[in-house]
Write a structure and sequence with these properties.
single chain; 339 residues; alpha/beta; Spo0b-associated Gtp-binding Protein, Chain: A; Rossmann fold; 2 domains; six-stranded mixed beta sheet; five-stranded mixed beta sheet; 4 helices; rod-shaped
């Protein structure tokens, strides 16, 4: 499935039906009077959050949505039929922006959460509504009002409690595949991960926690260099970050600082998000180097540090215990997460 996390669409609610001019003409009913009905209401457009969708792929080709117009009124005081409302499903975690007013309209997080994004136009009044003592035979009616029309940008931010970050080839995809049933594409090439991968990791209590493997960042990612900048938004909602560092790299500490600098440059509180440092590829280094790296990292960060091997699963149990502990603490003290 192709992963699309941004889309621009146009929505047009239905126009209201016109009111009509009509008079009651029946045998044995003299001076029947005006009987023109009102027009029907135009259909409105709603956006609904759905767990069934994981991407905005549906909006890659279908970009224009229009609800039905209301029907014009009829004689004998008959009101026109209302236009059918249109309901559009979007993935949970979708933020809706008004492109013209440059403002956020809604943040659809909860499953089945629904908002009216464009209201249908009201139906016009028929001539029966203009009857008065001064005007016993009105010959005027009003047209229906236009429905609301907007240009919108949809932006998907994944709903995950734990985000796994790091440079390309740090082993993020391998880690999430070891912790969960997710099976991302894994290979020894830069930018193998082209899309965020989600995996559900079970707590000892049996509850599921969503982990997100974010595509590798490089220096300058916040300014549009590389691929990772496209997905930095997906860790804005996470409560905890697991920073995976390749312990076999030439300079693991420099790699760590690159990611920290990108988080700070991107802003939106990412650099203040709680982190756990995981020195990966423990199976490829000796104990002496492992102790040296752990000591060096302890001098530059207060975050908990773990040595793990995503391939052999060594150290993952201790890492998970720390993750559950931090999430429980954050649950008691909610973290402010930007939309």
């Amino acid at each position: 499935m192709q992963f699309i996390d941004q889309a621009e669409i146009e929505v047009q609610a239905g126009n209201g039906g016109d009111g009509v001019v009509a008079f009651r003409r029946e045998k044995y009913v003299p001076a029947g009077g005006p009987s023109g009905g009102n027009g029907g209401r135009g259909g409105s457009i709603f956006l609904k959050a759905s767990e069934r969708l994981q991407t905005l792929l549906d909006f890659k080709y279908a970009r224009y949505f229009k609800a039905d117009n209301g029907k014009r009124g009829g004689s004998n005081n008959c009101t026109g039929a209302s236009g059918k409302d249109l309901e559009i499903e979007v993935p949970c975690g979708t933020i809706v922006y008004d492109l013209d007013r440059e403002e956020t309209i809604a943040d659809l997080v909860q499953p089945s959460q629904i908002i009216c994004i464009a209201k249908g136009g009201k139906g016009g009044l028929g001539n029966k509504c203009f009857l008065s003592n001064q005007n016993r035979a009105p010959e005027q009616a009003l047209p229906g009002l236009d429905g609301e029309q907007y240009r919108l940008r949809l932006e998907l931010k994944l709903l995950a409690e734990v985000g796994i970050i790091g440079l390309p080839n740090a082993g993020k995809s391998t880690l999430i595949s070891s912790l969960s049933s997710a099976r991302p594409k894994i290979a020894n090439y830069p930018f193998t991960t082209l899309i965020p991968n989600l995996g559900v990791v079970r707590k000892p209590s049996g509850d599921g926690t969503v982990f997100a493997d974010i595509p590798g960042l490089i220096a300058g990612a916040h300014a549009g260099i590389g691929l990772g900048h496209e997905f930095l938004r997906h860790i804005e909602r996470t409560r905890l970050l697991v920073h995976l560092v390749d312990s076999t790299a030439d300079n693991p500490l420099a790699d760590y600082r690159i990611i920290q600098a990108e988080l700070a440059a991107y802003g939106k509180g990412l650099s203040d998000r709680q982190q756990i440092i995981a020195l990966n590829k423990l199976d490829a280094i000796d104990a002496e180097l492992q102790d040296f790296l752990t000591a060096e990292f302890a001098t530059i960060t207060d975050s908990p540090i773990f040595a793990v091997s995503a391939v052999t699963r060594s150290g993952l149990d201790l890492l998970l215990q720390s993750i559950w502990q931090h999430l429980d603490e954050l649950q008691e003290k909610p973290t402010a997460i930007a939309i």
